[in-house]
Amino acid sequence: MSKISPINIGIAEQDRKEIADGLARMLADTYTLYLKTHNFHWNVTGPMFQTLHLMFMTQYTETWNAVDLVAERIRALGYPAPGSYKEFAALTCIKESTGSVSAKDMINQLVAGQEAVVRTAREVLPIAEKAGDQPTVDLLSARMEVHEKNAWMLRSLLEE
Questions:
Q1: Which residues have a Cβ under 8 Å from the Cβ of 81 and sit 6 or more positions away?
Q2: Closest CA to 136 of 151, 123, 147
Q3: 11-48 confidence digits (pLDDT tens)
Q4: Within 13 Å, how many C-alpha atoms sit on residue 48's CB side?
Q5: How many other C-beta atoms are found inside a 10 Å radius of the C-beta of residue 29?
Q6: pTM, whole model, 2 decimals?
């Protein structure tokens, strides 16, 4: 039986671990935001129903696809990606939503969630930059752009 060679992609193991740990937090934030957005898509009511129902669907679909990108980057760095609700709950900074929530509160919570993902990505970015991990830098930059835009679009619905 042949032995698997160690990962040698030009990033030190300690750096890969630190980046993967940061990406695990981002994955947990992203998955939690996905779940919250999907929940709100199902349960939104009121005069903005159609607008929010469609916006939430667009956002949760994009976020669902991003979950895979983040998890696969963790795997490419040589570490297991978290994948259970228990792990995500321990790693995320996004608060779960329970019970009935007004459309306005849904929007506020999703703005906060979008911005939380951006902040987590911003924390990991300098670690990836210092390690010369361009694929992670590119992933983080792309995710920040999407989540900043989503937060702006959501926030614009709150203006009077």
A1: 24, 27, 70, 71, 72, 74, 75
A2: 123
A3: 999 999 999 999 999 999 999 999 999 999 999 999 99
A4: 15
A5: 26
A6: 0.94
